[in-house]
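Consider the following input, taken from an annotated entry for DUF3060 domain-containing protein (Tahibacter amnicola).
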Amino acid sequence: MKTFACSVLALAGLLVAQASVAQSDNPDGKIEQNNNKAVTHNCGEAGSLSLVGSGNEVTVTGECTLVAIKGGNNTVRINRVSQINVDGDGNQVSWVDGTGPGNQATSKVAGRNNVVTQEKPVEAH
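Applying the prediction step yields:
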């Protein structure tokens, strides 16, 4: 019985550890109160993402009309986006392709030490 209980606890711990590393697509476009997690989000149906939390590493796939980040020390990489809003301190946000005017992403940034930059797309050889 003791061995079975230990196995169940070990399996539960493994599932919790996996959940903190990756989160499946969230169709409503919200990732709230996540702290210190690695998350992949597909803008897919919602077309947007609202992240509230601190210390997260977020990869955003698909095409987003809006990515809004509220918190601190998040690292966010966005594939395609039109508008980026950042409110907090120490956030690092990068985007590859802009879908706004002139194929750019526009950004509104409030807080301290936030950086929003465009990455160069990876060229096929």
